[in-house]
Amino acid sequence: MIRRTLRVALTGLVVLLSAIVSTPTQVRAAPYAAMVIDARTGEVLHSRNADTRLHPASLTKMMTLYIAFEAIRLGEITLDTEVRISQNAAAEPPSHLGLRAGTTIRLRYLIRAAAIRSANDAATAIGEAIEGSEAAFARRMNRTAEALGMTRTTFRNANGLTEEGHLSTARDMTTMGRRVFFDYPQYYNLFSRRSADAGIATVRNTNRRFLDAYRGADGIKTGYTRAAGYNLVASAERGGVRIIATVFGGRSTASRNERIMELLDMGFERAPSHATVRRPELPTYPDDGRVGRDYRASGLVTSSLRPLPRPLPVTGPSDPSPDLIAAVASAVEVALAEIPPEEEGLAESPIPAPRPEPLEEGDISAEAEAVQLAMLDPDPVDLPHPVPRPEIVALDSTEIELAVIDPDAAPPAQEVVTRASSDGNHLYGVSLGRYPTQFAAEQLLLQTALAELGLFDRALRNVEHRTGGFEAQFAGMSQEEADRACARLMARDIICTTYGP
């Protein structure tokens, strides 16, 4: 009887322990919060506990990446900067890229790993590369959050791992997602990639289930820790309407994705079909000698220096002797004296003989000056008959009319010349994708053209209004030029496609 009682008790204890061990972490109750906005205007369409300070988890990496994009824009760092990995970064727990202390890797690969794989070691390495230490980078994160209006957010690290005081809100993270989209649209496509080369490994998107399941979804960031639960800031665009929704405290990936889809559906139902886009201004900072100062963006020309005049040749063995110079000058004077002052046909020359500019004292000897005068003012009898010069009359940006000024001749037929070559080759171009506003598309074209002067110096910048936004294009290129330009842009993480006839 005692044995049976002990057996039953032990069996019950085993069942209880098994239940405790097998209980998945996703049932852990984390505080729930949500926010839905119309991304075009920033109007709030739905909120719940939106101002409750909670653990953001890897949603933090949106700020880390935002500052990385800002540092590139300000010229503090480049995508190809080689970043040395510290012991601190290499020791970060998963999810990670697997970086090793003492190795180097390009910043572009760290950005991909942080945005797509949500790698903690990559995020820490980004912060240390920009500010020297993770603590200094956290201070910059808080300064940037304040400038963006994220009033209830405090950052302690670059990756979002749970740390005392590292808190944010659904409202602030929704603001963060909107600013990434509007302030750096050239990098926003990173968040919709299903996979990417991160230098030492190919990384897969932690948000691919949602991206594949919801029509119009194109980003942006997931987050999970035990303290936070399953978080997500998501964006989707349909018919020119863009909605951003945020969820804090999901109980599993599946339930979080289901909830975010319901919130996005609610947003599309409540948002107007047409609205004026209110594009936010880039943040400004107090001048503390660091972020507030001006940086020169890499590759951009800020000033054009006036070319210096070429120095006059130094007298050497090959120069004419003084006797020769004197003989030439004497011969020229004799020839000029023999010319009648008003010879028929030359009294009213249509093109006066050019006169030399006065020379400064010490520039050249008197004999050399005589030779220059002789060369610039030859015998008028030897002048060829002047050819009438064409007058260029601009019709528009692509056409030029050439008309020859000749009062005795019949008016010639107009000739129209366009920028396209006669062989029909320059009918190709490069498309940089569609953007929510014409301003965003034009700004991207200008920035790209300035950064890649050798690729697009002959191309035309063009913005086409199409369904779903404004398409940014470089037109008037040959097929080879378009292919080469797009390949170079892809190497810089700028998505593009070529098109042609």
Low-confidence stretches at least 5 residues in length (pLDDT < 50)? 14-28, 289-304, 343-383, 392-407, 414-423
CATH superfamily of the largest domain: DD-peptidase/beta-lactamase superfamily
CATH-derived topology of the largest domain: Beta-lactamase
The helix/strand class is alpha+beta
Inertia-based shape: elongated
- Count of discrete alpha- or pi-helical segments spanning 4 or more residues: 15
From the 3D coordinates, which CATH architecture of the largest domain would you assign?
A: 3-Layer(aba) Sandwich
Number of domains: 3
Strand content: 15-25%
What percent of the residues sit in helical stretches (DSSP H or I)? Answer: 25-40%
Instruction: For the largest sheet, list the strands in their spatial order.
Output: 2-1-9-8-7
Q: Return Rg in Å.
A: 35 Å
Q: Profile the largest sheet.
A: 5 strands, antiparallel
Mean pLDDT: 78
Q: Give the tally of β-strands.
A: 16
- CATH class label of the largest domain: Alpha Beta
- Distance from N terminus to C terminus (CA atoms, Å) equals 91 Å
